Amino acid sequence: MKIKNLFLGVATAAMAMAAASCSNIDEGDRLIYVKPAEVGRAILIEDFTGQKCINCPTGTEIINSIVETYGEENVIAYQVGLLRRFKPLVAVGHDREGEYGHGAHRLNALALEQAVVYAADASYDAESAAQYGVWDTPKLYLHFADENPIFLDVETPLESFGGKTAFKVASEAMLCHESQLQYAHRLTLASEEFPRYDCRRFGLVRSLVGADTGNDIMEHLC
Q: Taking a C-beta distance cutoff of 8 angstroms, is the pair 132, 191 a contact?
């Protein structure tokens, strides 16, 4: 597994919604930024089940292999470099428990939470800081995070997509993900059988611009 694959986000549908409305918020009216908790560079991952997941029983092996091959610090540093280089207004990551429990997804999500903090710290990875400058990502969402949950509207037809919904566009994009088609052929909304497969639910785990008041991941950014 190449390390660049770790940075793949969950949210094809979420990114499709990035063209949604923006709000102009006066500086004095913004919510006070809550400083993120101090984090160390060690990552804790708890593995407790592989039920209904053909890949999950080897999840721990995948995590150990990644850490052994690249090292936790290198995973974080790679993400820091990407954040500094591309300077996103919004970063979207995997479920902390992994999409269907996948170990690489879990490592990616936990590392990304630290990477957004370190990307703003000029003393961390001086080489990429010198090359790209530091960057403090305004908003970080993780799939199914409990903090400040939102449910994206992916079922409204959008003119910018030729009348297609974000869910339809994401579903068509899924067909290009050839390595996954042997396991799944479509995205899903809420279901009793696979509740954590819902592509609409995200949580705002870190924000420099205050909490969301609706279901727009670009809120307060324009």
A: no
**Under DSSP, is residue 142 helix (H, G, I), strand (E, B) or coil?**
strand
**Span 136-177, pLDDT tens digits:** 999 999 999 999 999 999 999 999 999 999 989 988 888 888
Q: Are 90 and 48 in contact (CB under 8 A)?
A: no
Q: List, as one string, the DSSP characters of 7-74.
A: G--S-HHHHHGGGS------GGGSPPP-PPPP--S---------TT-SSGGGHHHHHHHHHHHH-HHH
Note whether 119 and 136 are within 8 A (CB). yes
Cβ atoms of 117 and 150 within 8 Å: the answer is no
CB-hemisphere CA count at 13 Å for 193?
A: 3
| Segments of the chain with pLDDT less than 70 | 1-71, 183-187, 190-196
- What DSSP designation does 195 have? G
Q: Please state the pTM of the whole predicted model.
A: 0.69
